[in-house]
Design a protein that fits this description.
The strands form 3 sheets. Strands 2-3-6-1-7 form a 5-stranded parallel sheet, with helices on one face. It has a two-stranded antiparallel ribbon with strand order 4-5. The protein has 15 helices and 9 strands. The structure holds adenosine-5'-diphosphate and magnesium ion (MG). GO terms for molecular function: ATP binding; four-way junction DNA binding; four-way junction helicase activity; hydrolase activity.
Length: 352
């Protein structure tokens, strides 16, 4: 299970949302890079991880626990699988929300073999009792399992094979301090540069057997919100368009026409991104406004607005997070075809 499986993010999103539609998951699996050397971009995280893995291999010990943080679709799940692959280990996959009871985690932990990688996706959503059990498991490779209830309850110590925990989160700030402290390494995933997304697109097109021209790839890359998952999704939509309305080749022309049909604008903003900006500007005068108020205005969950939309809007220079709330930048007003307030002519006052 992975973040892709959470229904709540999957609702009411446009075809280019950061999380995949069902039925496209198999395709996504086929497009995942398998080795660190195939993993495009994230030079910093890649170099850091290479060192962590290589030195662990030389010492013949499982590496320190790894936390990967960043917005959806940047390659956290792919990297965790690569970590297992590079270590020649088996990966066991679960997620924070699936670990509701400490017993669920105990069962998972007791089944680990030495050197296994345990991947916990959306680890910030783990329930408290499971989280506390995880502290001990990460530090001492043992847990205390409580059997029975009330005065008769006893706790049985349970040894766990030395393993490596890889946690992924879209909100590292939501992790408790004690949990964060138990990771030996945190990789912060950044949005990708358009040139890196071009490479992702050429690789994916080759795997899917889609003919693509460099201009076509550049256009899709530019409009993919810095996110490989979105680049891959847009590639498939442009391919559909190219097959139905043209000769099947992804060119600059087919890319532009298709992205127009799918409501992806010049900056790659999708419907929800634009709805957030519009609400901010039109209903709240550009802010500041709290994120939950903004989320209600666009009919989305606050978490989706905060974790899926905002990071890219901030990065694109459209939105600022201030202590008093979210604020639209002048660029956001202009992007919506409006004049930013400071540049608007002053309204005449009574005394003029
Ligand atoms: N660095 C990369 N190079 C090539 N493809 C990538 C890369 N990162 C992500 N992808 C593609 O994007 C998709 C989503 O990545 P994923 O690892 O599921 O992201 P996350 O877990 O952060 O949401 C993958 O299926 C893969 O095809
Ligand atoms: Mg994932």
């Amino acid at each position: 299970m992975s973040d892709e499986d959470y229904g709540e993010f999957g609702t009411a999103r446009s075809p280019v949302s950061a999380l995949p539609e069902t039925g496209e998951r198999e395709l996504e699996t086929a497009l995942r890079p398998r080795r660190l050397s195939e993993f495009i971009g994230q030079a910093r995280v890649r170099e850091q991880l290479e060192l962590v893995l290589e030195s662990a291999k030389r010492r013949g010990r499982p590496p320190d626990h790894v936390l990967l943080s960043g917005p959806p679709g940047l390659g956290k799940t792919s990297l965790s699988m690569i970590i297992a692959e590079e270590l020649n280990s088996t990966i066991r996959i679960t997620s924070g929300p699936a670990l509701e009871r400490a017993g669920d985690l105990a069962a998972m932990l007791s089944n680990l073999a030495e050197g296994d990688v345990l991947f916990i996706d959306e680890i910030h959503r783990i329930a408290r009792p499971a989280e506390e059990m995880l502290y001990m498991a990460m530090e001492d490779f043992r847990v205390d399992v409580v059997v029975g209830k009330g005065p008769g309850a006893t706790s049985i110590p349970l040894e766990i094979a030395p393993f490596t925990l890889v946690g992924a989160t879209t909100r590292s700030g939501a992790l408790t301090g004690p949990l964060r402290d138990r990771f030996g390494f945190t990789g912060h995933m950044e949005f990708y540069e358009p040139e890196e997304l071009e490479q992702v697109l050429h690789r994916s097109a080759a795997i899917l057997g889609v003919p693509i021209e460099p201009d076509g790839a550049a256009e899709i890359a530019r409009r993919s919100r810095g996110t490989p998952r979105i680049a891959n999704r847009l590639l498939r939509r442009v391919r559909d368009y190219a097959e139905v309305r043209a000769d099947g080749v992804v060119t600059l022309e087919t890319a532009r026409a298709a992205l127009e049909v799918y409501d992806v604008d010049e900056l790659g903003l999708d419907r929800l991104d634009r709805a957030v900006l519009k609400a901010l500007v039109e209903s709240f005068g550009g802010g500041p406004v709290g994120v939950s108020t903004l989320a209600v205005a666009v009919g989305e969950e606050a978490a989706t607005v905060e974790e899926v939309c905002e990071p890219y809007l901030v990065r694109a220079g459209m939105l600022a997070r201030t202590p008093r709330g979210r604020v639209a930048t002048p660029a956001a007003w202009r992007h919506l075809g409006l004049i930013p307030p400071k540049e608007q002519p002053e309204a005449p006052t009574l005394f003029d």
